[in-house]
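User: Could you check the structure of this?
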Amino acid sequence: MTLSLPLPINTIINLPRPLLLGPPSRCRFSTVAFRPSSLLHISGVVSRNLCRYWFSTMTTAARVEQEEDKQSKTSVELKEKIEITEKEREIFDRLLGTLRFCNLDTQLRVAGGWVRDKVRTLEHSRHSDDIDIAIDNMYGSEFLDKLKEYLASRGEQVQGDTVIERNPDQSKHLETAKMRIYNQWIDFVNLRSEEYTENSRIPTMKFGTPKEDAYRRDLTINSLFYNINTGSIEDLTERGIDDLKSGRIVTPLPAKATFLDDPLRVLRAIRFGARFGFTLDEELKQDASSEEVRVALGEKISRERIGNEVDLMISGNGPVSAVTYLSDLKLFGIVFAFPSSSEPAPSENCGSICKAYLEAMWSLIQTPGLGKFSGEQRRLALYAALFLPFRKTVYKDNKGKMIPVVNHIFKFSMKRKTSDAETVINIHRTTEKFLSLIHSLQLKNGAQVDKLDWATDILEHWKSISVDDPEIPETSKIRVLTGFLLRDIKDFWRVALLTSLLLSVVDGMKEDQETGQLDFQLEKLRESYLTIEETICELGLDNIWHVKPLVNGNAIMQITELKGGYHIREWQQKLLTWQLAYPNGSSDECKDWMRQVKAKRQRTE
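Assistant: Sure, the predicted structure tokens are below.
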């Protein structure tokens, strides 16, 4: 259930006609009819056939430019009425009930992204579920106590609450109180204004007016308030609505002062620009790339906060635009900081090179019919492509051990979970192996893979099997090699295949060349991917990592009369080779083969 609440004319710019999100002079879409209580949207959605045609006839750069152009030209109406869900209504009723119960003369406002998305959200778009309450005359923790008192009087229990203290050294200037009610976390903060002393970047905080607080926000589009007391939207910078209409990313105050207050705002500006297809203001870009702001971002902001922003960029709908901004604004090396002992040292244009790989991967995984990737697979596929130029770069840790630099980027530069680093590094390693099998998988023939550095033992095991069985098909060799590969990478094998295809195009080329010369020939890669995917599925290897060994460790020791150690592991590899070569083989047949091999070895000895 939703409730449509009108926006009072005296508290927001009157909306007498449809508001276009995007520069009006550049819009090429049909005029949108105005509907007083709903939102009508005409988007640049591309049909399946048109997408394929578009994919095959345009270069990567042109496609991305068209996609960005499409985003900036999409015509939408800003909503004349804001729609409140039933759960939101119940939450707001409890907040207003607290004011009445405690006899408080307090104004409560929802701030930021929730308001922005309520005004502009299309039915199919993702909107912000975060409800941040700005309070005009008390701290968030004080109101939290009042709210708990009111809920207790009604016999309602709080699902959780906490207070996050200020941390000025990390640009966390506000105390934030949090409470979970109706399965929704709500943040409570006081309206603020800030004063800076001449010799300190850390501001002195004091209660501010709603207008002062709005001007201290990161972006004008995030400075809108929804006043719960009056049920109205407040655009106190008098720019928020206009910038939503024109698709501009602008700071309420001068950009450099805003960024030095909290340098993370640079990344937020990039993220929102990429997410909405909005244009970053020229002054904002100039200040974002300044030495002072770049140093502040690297020194003042925790790596975890930086990593969170990057993750949102990569997981969003404009990762290429986001990384392009990071590269163009000279922020790539700040965000993805390398250790000084990196070998080889990153090139000056590494950001542009990484962006080119990311752009190609993004274009591939966006293609209709090119497999189904989960959100996690998509995210890590983009990271794997982004960091592909660093797959052979290492650094020396405190113990003198050489470690992949990608590990450092994930664990230290972005403070991401260890499994992210492990998965991407494994994708890179598998990519190199996959590269050696691409031609054979396309031909469905393993004749050209008699010598592989990574599969020497596997090939020897297969040869010993083929000697005893001259009728074994040649395709069994490619099945065995690919099976080992997929059992290692598991359900990320499609990501590794795409990554290896990207690498196959530039194999033998200098990756530090101008990125304009990197032609990934995406249509050919797409066709190659579909052919190889079909071959792998025909070989029955999809989900091969779920197949259990036909013979367990105890049976191996019993038949071979070995007690464990290296020789048992060798036999496990031999048995897996046999099992992959004979997909319909039984456990008893496998054990018989083991006895034959053992007897043959004993006769030889």
